[in-house]
Design goal:
Strands 4-3-2-1-7-6-5 form a seven-stranded antiparallel sheet, with helices on one face. It is built from one helix and seven strands. It has one domain: Pleckstrin-homology domain (PH domain)/Phosphotyrosine-binding domain (PTB) (PH-domain like). With 139 residues, the chain is of the alpha+beta class.
């Protein structure tokens, strides 16, 4: 059973499909401390009562490299999330307010910084433990 995650932002975005036509599809994006969850829209049209699917595609920060390619066009922000595998996932959202690309980029930097701090602590603890045995001292 998974622990509850802190939701940092929740709202609509559009994701470009990877198919031949590369259509823009509406998604509900949930930004957490661990990454993004993308829910499909089951309803049709722009009705606010459209139902969101309970199944979600998860994009975890541990597999992300960067948020790239920001372009502002006709009131929309276009951006790309680059995964560690080299896969690029294109998104767009309205330009008004805090744009999704900035929120995702800041959350990704925060996640990577926490990972680096934890790695540094673990390295420090393992070297200080080795140093306490006296094995690596020179006479």
């Amino acid at each position: 059973m998974s622990l509850p995650v802190k939701v940092m932002r929740d709202g609509p975005v559009e994701k470009r499909s990877s198919g031949l036509l590369q259509l823009w599809k509406k998604k509900r994006c949930v930004l957490t401390e661990d990454g993004l969850r993308l829910h499909n829209c089951k309803g049709s049209g722009d009705a606010p009562s459209s139902a969101w699917s309970s199944r979600a595609k998860e994009l975890r920060f541990e597999r992300m490299v960067t948020v790239d390619c920001v372009e502002y066009k006709r009131g929309l922000v276009y951006f790309t999330i680059v995964m560690a595998t080299g896969k690029e996932i294109d998104f767009r959202c309205p330009q008004d307010g805090a744009a999704w690309n900035a929120e995702i980029a800041l959350a990704l930097v925060r996640y990577k910084n926490l990972q680096a701090v934890q790695t540094g602590r673990n390295r420090h603890l393992s070297t200080s433990h080795l140093g306490s045995t006296g094995e690596d001292e020179t006479l």
